[in-house]
Each structure stands twice: as C-alpha cells, then as structure tokens.
Amino acid sequence: MRVEAFVSQQDILNLAKEGDARAIAFLIGQALQSFGVTAKASLENDTLHLLLEAEQLPAEEACLRVAVKGLQRLEPNNVYAVTVYGRRGGQQLPAWTQTVELKKRLTNAPVSVPAPVSVPAPVSVPEPVSVAAAPIPAAAAIPTAPIPVALPKLEKTPNFTTAPTETPEKSPPKPRKIPTRKPTNQRQKKPSPQPDRAGTKTQKSWLSIGTLSLILVPISGLVLGSQLYKPSTTATINPLTSKPAVQKVRSTSSPAPAAKPAPKSPSQAVIKPANSPATVSIKAVGDMIPGTNFPYNKLPENKERLFESVKPYLQGADILFGNFESTMTDYPYSSKGGGGGMLFAFRTPPSYAKIFKDVGFDILNIANNHSYDFNEQGFKDTIKNIDSNGMKSVGKRDQIVYQNVKGVNFAFIGFSNYGEVHNSLLELQAGAEVVKKAKQKADIVVISVHAGAEGTGAQNVRNKNEFFYGENRGNMVLFSRTMIDAGADLILGHGPHVTRAVELYKGKLIAYSLGNFMGYRTLSTAGELGQSLILDVKMTPKGDFVSGKIIPIELSSQGIPSVDEDFRTVGLIRRLTKSDFPNTGLTIDDKGQILKKSK
What we know:
This protein has helices at residues 9-17, 21-32, 60-74, 213-227, 311-314, 353-359, 375-387, 428-439, 476-486, 568-580; strands at 4-7, 38-44, 47-54, 81-88, 96-101, 129-132, 280-289, 319-324, 363-365, 392-394, 401-405, 408-416, 423-424, 444-450, 467-468, 471-472, 490-494, 502-505, 508-511, 516-519, 531-539, 545-555, 561-563, 586-588, 593-596. The chain is α/β, with parallel strands linked by helices. Strands 7, 8, 9, 10, 20, 21, 22, 23, 24 and 25 form a 10-stranded mixed beta sheet that branches. Strands 11, 12, 13, 14, 17, 18 and 19 form a 7-stranded mixed beta sheet that branches. A 4-stranded mixed beta sheet has the order 2-3-4-5.
C-alpha cells in the first residue's frame, strides 16, 4: 500500500536513527546513487540486511566502507550488526557478502522492530514536500544468512570522497605487478577542525555527492559536532611550559640483583656488566605520516618545522621509538592504483629520513598497513632509507632488532595483522616463539604492534577480537599478555588512531594505543583523534616497570604536534584505564605521572 506523507530531510534522518530500515537504505542509496548503486534493506531482529545492486558488480570494499561508516555515525536504535550483500543487476544471488558487528549487544534486552514508515523518492527541493514512499521489497527477497561464495578481488574502488583541489600527477604506464600481498585496509580520511579551537569549525560532509548533500550533510554535521573537543575553562598549572632537561638515572633506585639470571628462557643470557644502570628509559610515540607526494603533493614547505614544537620533549631517553606509517621511496607505482576514493597510499621522499634522525629517533616500526603502499620495492626502499640514516627499522617477518644501551641489550619485534610480510598478531604461538628467541640474547624485549579497530568508537579495550570493515584486527589483550608470558617486557600498541588505556601485567607495562602523533594533511585531527602523547617509560635492566609519564600532545588541523597545556590526553587515558582495567596496579595523577600502586 502506498502512503502519502510530508517528509523532510530531518524526518528521514530521525527515522534512520530510530532504526527504520527503509530510511537507512534511502540515505545509503543516495550516497551511492551517482555510482549506479541502489540500496534495499530489511531489519530482522537486531541485524540490518542491506542489498546493494548495480548494473556492474558493486565494489565490495568501497561499498562496505560507505555502509558501515554511515551506520556507525547514525547509531540507529536496535541495530547491532549489518550484513551487506553485493549483487549484479539481473542476478538472483549476491556475488559477495560481509557481516560486521556495529556495537555490543545488551544481554536480556528486549529487541524491538520499528514500524514501517514511508520514505520519499529522491527529490531536489530543499523544503519538505509531499512524496510517495517507494515500496521496499519483502525481507524474504534478501538472504538472511551469509552465502558461501568466493569474494571477488577488488581491482578498483570508486571515488566516494571529495575530489582533490590539486592537480594529480601523471603517472607513467604501470609495469607488470609484483606478486606481493595487497594490503586490505584503506583508511577513510575524516574532516579536520580549523586551527581556532574556540571558534566555529568548518565541517565537510564525509561524502561528496553534489546536490544530494541536502540529505547527507546532517549526518556528518551531527557526528562531527559530537566528536569535536570543547576545551575546558578550568585553569591548570602547567609543568611543561619550560623545556625539560635530560633525565638522569636515579641512584636511589634498587639495582637489579646480580646473582639471578635475567632471561626467562632456558638459554644463557648476556652477562650484565657490574655497573649496570638502575633504570633504563624509552620514549615512544604513535602513528607518524610527515606528508605525502602521492597522488599529488601534500608535503610541507619546510619539513624541519614538523617536529619543531615537540623536539625538546622527545629528548632525554635511552631509546626513542615511533611508528612510521608511510613509505620512504621514489618508486612511482602504488599497489593501490592512482589512489583516491577509499584508497590511501602514502609516499614520503627519502630525504625525510634525516628529520627523524635529527630529532633523535632510534627505532621506527614499519609493521603496519601502509608499508606495502608502493609494493615490495617501496617496502625495501623504506628499510634502506631508515637504516642508512643511522636508525633501525623493525617490522619484517621473523625479524629481531637489537639495540645495546648502557650495557643493557634491547630487542624490538614488530607485529601487525598483515602476516605474510610482518609477524602476525593473529599467530600467537609463532609470535611467542620469536619472543623466546629474542629473550635468549636480550635483557629487555619490546613489542611494537599495529592492531585494533580504528576511530573514536574504538577507544575502549575489550578482551576479544576486534574487527574493522570486516577485517580481523586481533585481540590486543590476549596478544599482549601472551607475549609477556613468553618473555616480552613492554608492549607498544598503535593503529586505532586514538589513545587507549594502559595496563600493568605481571610487572610489565602495556600501552594499548599511542594514537596519532603526526599526520601532515593526511590524518584526521578532529576531537580525540587529535589528542596524543609521548609515553616516557622507565624500567629496570630486567624490563620490570618502574614508572612512567604521559607528556600530552595535541595535533593542529594540519596534523603537526605540539604540547597540550590543557593535559587533555592525561585525563582521557586516566578515564580509559579506570574503565577498562579497574584492577590494574597503576595510578595516573593529573600531571601524567604513572606509578605502581603501593601494596
């Protein structure tokens, strides 16, 4: 039956947020309409079944990202999961199917299905008009369970983001593809706030759809408005206003017992010298992208200014670590084609290695989802350019990088969920064996792990596998504790693009995510995505946690770090730690000092 109704754009948005399947399908269909994709939906229990159909088979990865991102921003009532089907026009069965959990289900909570409500056909009139709701096919026409079919290989993803204003570079013809694994995670770039935090922030729609933005802009505005941080008006005394001095080893700390062997493995450890220090220290930061020149130029005019504000605070530790989430290469051919849309390939000129060396970095992790943005050649170039500038890269599969400081031997191992080229965090037994091997020669084993779902909705740590657009990003709690059980002493997590809680497990520190540290014109800095830190950790020569400090960092709208005098990251990590690990043996004061609880 057709129902006539006056429906405005706000009515459609409200219906979608209430969980009306047809309203949700209408909005997603409008987002995909210019690409020839239509959307139909039905809601069964708490799972939304979304059928995407086009004359040519819809691109799986791009369509999945649009659907899931839209639902995450809408947060519709009583919708806890979505199953997305891609079908070519005229076919009976979908060619691909993906199910994604949107949020945790409440136990014993009643499930309610919204009553059918009319949704208008597409209109271009900005004012509410009387339209006839197009009938939605019966739910039976949409499969209710995943269909066992082979997923098509994604060759090209349509562009769902705003077209760049710069002129793209012309690329020469591509050579034959190198037979390497193609990374599956492509990050969707989010809008960034303007530099003036106190003023009104210009916000862009998450999809560029011309006149159809009438319907979708309210979604992006609603979400970004809730994400942007409102600065506190509370005055705070700031101990970071003066440049920090180089930290000295405290002679009052208890030295490590000389009579007991350091390693947990059966093999003989390296004998420590008699003058072994009381403590050793590591400073660590999260994701760093200092700009890219692909597919068009997004590099700073003066690259030395990228670390200018934070350089003094990166000094003073025995080892400085960071996650380099780009490539250092001039190789012209990307594994992600020409970029654009949902495909993000980062390429930083090799000359940028010098600024990382000059600021003091010792170890740069390359075990992440952008290390193969320019195929195997780009990966090899990145390693060569880091290592040839006096630093050490870590991230190749089965690789252990050693660094001796003050007679204490450190070992670094990189993990990600891209196990063909890196150590896989999903292969726990294999990872534990690499840790045990490292412990045979090292006093302290440090794990760098790129894992976890992404974004402001992924700040809390849960002891279960995390999924991001259908991709298994691992169980960070299980992985971290398993590696410590095998002999690891410090876990440095990164990848979610937000900071997460810290935990003390068997006397060893786990930092579940260090967030974004630098993302020049590449990473979103909206709200908590722009709150970061320098983590300063002190350990005994056996790797036991002694103390730590959160040096709060904020990113500008361009992704350049500076010290945050409002200490927002400190408050954020305190709250997350109390929420996620209420019984952990750590205290964090309001100035960022991390101490073990007194027994």
